[in-house]
Prior knowledge:
By secondary structure, this protein is mainly α. It has helices at 2-28, 36-59, 64-78, 81-93, 97-124. The protein is globular.
Amino acid sequence: MIKQIIAIGAGGFLGSVLRFFSSKFIQEHYLGSFPLGTFTVNVIGCFFIGLIYGLAEKENLMNYELRLFLTVGLLGGFTTFSTFANESMLLLKDNNLYVFAIYISLSVFVGILATFLGNYIIKAL
Length: 125
């Protein structure tokens, strides 16, 4: 159990730091009100979790601790529902209903699509 906790914690640390810098970089280079940084990070995370679970199901290429490190830790720290929810609330507070609707719709739809695509790619190989 301690190996699993360490794997998740180490992955979460790396994922959170990676998310911070990735999201910040994207937002600094994008001038619109759409929260593109969080959206991009979440879609990338969804895609990679699809890849990882596809690999785990197809080939059994990773042990349980590595899968926990990558999915629960790294990608769990990299993606963020709480930031998504907060940015959505801020868009509502600013009466930016159009961007709010697009952000919510695209995040859910593209996130699920990216997860499916990652999983599909692995199964097709």
